[in-house]
Amino acid sequence: MARSALLQALGETAAVVAQRIDDDGIDGEQVGVYTTASKKVLVVVTPTADVLKKLRKLEENKGSTMILLNPQVRCGSHASVPLAS
Questions:
Q1: Structure pTM?
Q2: Is 65 helix (H, G, I), strand (E, B) or coil?
Q3: How far apart are alpha carbons 78 and 64 in whole angstroms?
Q4: Pairing of strands 41-45, 65-69
Q5: Cα 40 from Cα 31, distance rounded (Å)
Q6: pLDDT computed for residue 85 by the predictor
Q7: Antiparallel, parallel or unpaired: β 65-69 and 32-35
Q8: Distance (Å, rounded) from C-alpha 67 to C-alpha 4?
Q9: Contacts of 70 (CB under 8 A, 6+ apart)
Q10: Where are the domains of the chain?
Q11: How do residues 15-32 score in pLDDT, each as one tens digit?
């Protein structure tokens, strides 16, 4: 689903690169980043609070768009947390 969303958003047929960014190993929450070589769009699948620092680092890539797919982050009564500080 992330791969097809990324390709549709970009209108590209380029290869999609997938990378896990969580530190939980096999049994943990799997958080993945999907992008193409152009890195215009990043799709982050099931981001958790544990990877917020990594997401902020990815966010520094100016000129790109980050899509959070099924975020698993809560802050108080809100369903999501803004990445910008």
A1: 0.68
A2: strand
A3: 25
A4: parallel
A5: 19
A6: 47
A7: unpaired
A8: 13
A9: 45, 46
A10: 2-69
A11: 788 888 888 767 767 888
Long-range Cβ pairs for the range 56-63 (8 Å, 24+): 56/83, 56/85, 58/33, 59/83, 59/84
Element (H, E) at 20: strand 17-20
* AA identity, residue 76: G
Residue 67 — φ and ψ, nearest 5°? -110, 125
Separation of alpha carbons 62 and 50, rounded Å: 23
Cα 68-78-76 angle, rounded to 5 deg: 125
Paired tokens of 69: 């797919």
Q: What percentage of the chain exceeds 70 in pLDDT?
A: 68
**Cα torsion angle, 32, 6, 61, 47, sign:** negative
